[in-house]
């Protein structure tokens, strides 16, 4: 029983990381129709920059860790905004070029990270509490899972409030439903595009810092590894649906953890099979809008 409970909670923690990446992907595609294959770069950058900040302020202190989270999120947001302004904005409605540019940026990002920080993974540390465990129902659960779950829940709540109760949130939701109509009403959605990219980049950068604590290392390929599962979560949840991304993240991560333990490490296969089943039965995703 304790093993099952441990797998469930660690699955929630892994799902929280997936959601931090998938929420930005879902918003970006839902509003802008952009499949951003460079999203993993924002995550890896946040992880590396956050670790550099923590090293200077003290990686074992909460001051260093909280500063790493803040700077990692800001770095992800800044690079994401620049990506939208310089590379994506000239290519709207040119989907093949968007894919090529974002894939190329993803490859360039990995090469730059390897050139600056090296090709080997960097083993990191954090506050003593993060490295410890908490015993619940006989299971010793790594504390990093609790923080990841709390941050993901806070992000979900913040995004829901932003989308429902702010002017830009209203524009974004309307743009997801019908971008042509929003443009016809005389609303300049380009600012919303940049804002959405920035939000997605901030969430990815924050996810990078938390992922580095979850896995206890930072590497140039960390973002791309999580990006694969984030795309699976985004499609299963429904493109443009934040709630769908949250639900799908848990539906992917928990079975993945259980399968890795009980089915000889076939968790990744379970995630891919779940994607295939959803695409066959409900191509728009669990909470995606049906095509007119």
Automatic annotation (TrEMBL):
GO molecular function (one): transmembrane transporter activity
What parts of the sequence cross the membrane?
Answer: 6-27, 34-53, 65-87, 99-124, 144-163, 193-215, 227-254, 261-281
One Pfam family from the record: BPD_transp_2
Keywords from UniProt, A to Z, are: Amino-acid transport, Cell membrane, Membrane, Transmembrane, Transmembrane helix, Transport
Q: Does the keyword Transport apply?
A: yes
Annotated membrane topology = Multi-pass membrane protein
**Among its keywords, does the record have tRNA processing?**
no
Q: Name one GO cellular component term.
A: plasma membrane
Subcellular location, record wording: Cell membrane
UniProt xrefs under PANTHER family:
ABC TRANSPORTER ATP-BINDING PROTEIN, BRANCHED-CHAIN AMINO ACID TRANSPORT SYSTEM PERMEASE PROTEIN LIVH
Protein name, please?
Branched-chain amino acid ABC transporter permease
Q: Which organism is it from?
A: Georgenia subflava
Lineage runs: Bacteria, Bacillati, Actinomycetota, Actinomycetes, Micrococcales
């Amino acid at each position: 029983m304790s093993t099952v409970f441990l797998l469930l909670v660690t699955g929630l923690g892994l799902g929280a990381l997936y959601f931090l990446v998938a929420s930005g992907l879902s918003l970006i595609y839902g509003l802008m129709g952009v499949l951003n294959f460079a999203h993993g770069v924002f995550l890896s950058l946040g992880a590396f920059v956050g670790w550099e900040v923590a090293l200077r302020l003290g990686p074992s202190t909460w001051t260093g860790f909280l500063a790493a989270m803040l700077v990692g999120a800001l770095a992800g947001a800044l690079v994401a905004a620049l990506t939208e302004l310089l590379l994506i904005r000239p290519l709207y409605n040119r989907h093949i070029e968007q894919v090529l540019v974002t894939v190329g940026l993803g490859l360039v990002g990995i090469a730059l990270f390897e050139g600056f920080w090296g090709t080997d993974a960097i083993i990191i540390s954090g506050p003593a509490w993060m490295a410890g465990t908490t015993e619940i129902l006989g299971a010793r659960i790594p504390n990093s899972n609790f923080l990841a779950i709390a941050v993901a829940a806070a992000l979900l709540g913040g995004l829901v409030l932003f989308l429902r109760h702010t002017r830009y949130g209203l524009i974004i939701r309307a743009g997801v439903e019908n971008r042509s109509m929003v443009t016809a009403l005389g609303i300049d959605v380009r600012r919303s595009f940049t804002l959405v990219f920035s939000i997605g980049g901030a969430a990815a950068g924050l996810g990078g810092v938390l992922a580095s604590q979850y896995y206890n290392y930072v590497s140039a390929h960390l973002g791309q590894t999580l990006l694969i599962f984030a795309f699976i979560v985004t499609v299963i949840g429904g493109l443009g649906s934040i709630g769908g991304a949250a639900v799908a993240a848990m539906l992917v991560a928990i079975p993945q953890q259980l399968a890795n333990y009980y089915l000889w490490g076939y968790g990744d296969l379970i995630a891919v099979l779940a994607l295939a089943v959803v695409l066959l039965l409900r191509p728009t995703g669990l909470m995606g809008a049906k095509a007119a």
